[in-house]
Write a structure and sequence with these properties.
With 211 residues, the protein is of the alpha/beta class. 36% of the residues lie in helices and 21% in strands. Strands 1, 2, 3, 4, 8 and 10 form a 6-stranded mixed sheet that branches. It has a two-stranded antiparallel ribbon with strand order 5-6. A two-stranded parallel sheet has the order 7-9. The two termini are 18 Å apart. Keywords: Glycosidase, Hydrolase, Signal. It holds the Pfam family Glyco_hydro_18. InterPro entries: Chitinase-like, GH, Glyco_hydro18_cat, Glyco_hydro_18_chit_AS. Belongs to the glycosyl hydrolase 18 family.
């Protein structure tokens, strides 16, 4: 992810946190995040310098609830598939970097901007069905890759803010209660539609967002 997008996400998140009274500030602000794998440019964990005094989160980009068809991908109602560079970012490579650096955690990011050249929409059939499918499919991926958390980066929506909040909030709640993840982060940016959806999430489930 480009530096400009990271900065936009940072300032948008500051705005959202100011808006939400229920958000619990993270205990450790000494965290650096790097999105990796989305551009398929053979970027490896070893290409990124890691400082042992900083908690470093690599975020695999992306897991998307769309079919993997290259010609016409379509929404799958919470059945997530992997869309990152699986040639260079494998389960064994994830385990190796975590073994090498105790300060490193690895997460996956949900959503992203596009899939197959078109916008990747958050498009659930219903809250309960989406959450059930998402919990099942993401638990499998997270355990396969020995991941620590999830990052929410939906940027396009075909659902109202309250539905988004309930789906994502219930997903995070279940994954945490089941011990599948230890943290959840969000990546909003300065767009009215995006802001409204993430504000709804923070209002109802801000206490579950760690950073």
């Amino acid at each position: 992810m480009e530096l400009s997008k990271i900065l936009v996400h940072f300032f948008a998140l500051q705005f959202l946190l100011f808006q939400s009274q229920t958000y619990a500030a993270p205990g450790n602000s000494n965290i650096f995040r790097e999105y990796i794998g989305a551009e398929f440019k053979n970027v490896k964990f070893s290409d990124v310098p890691i400082h042992s005094g900083v908690e470093f989160h690599f975020i695999l980009s992306f897991a998307i609830d769309y079919t993997t068809s290259s010609s016409s991908p379509s929404p799958t109602n919470g059945q997530f598939n992997i869309f990152w560079d699986t040639d260079n970012l494998t389960p064994s490579v994830v385990s190796a970097i975590k073994d090498q650096y105790s300060s490193v955690k690895v997460a996956l990011s949900l959503g992203g901007d596009s899939v197959g050249g078109s916008s990747a929409y958050f498009n659930p059939s219903s809250v309960d069905s989406w959450v059930s499918n998402a919990v099942s499919s993401l638990t499998d991926i997270i355990k396969q890759y020995n991941l620590d958390g999830i990052d929410i980066d939906y940027e396009h929506f075909q659902a109202d803010p309250d539905t988004f909040a309930e789906c994502i909030g219930k997903l995070i709640t279940t994954l945490k209660n089941d011990g599948v993840i230890s943290f959840a982060s969000i990546a909003p940016f300065d767009d009215d539609e995006v802001q409204s959806h993430y504000q709804a999430l923070l209002k109802s489930y801000g206490h579950l967002i760690d950073c």
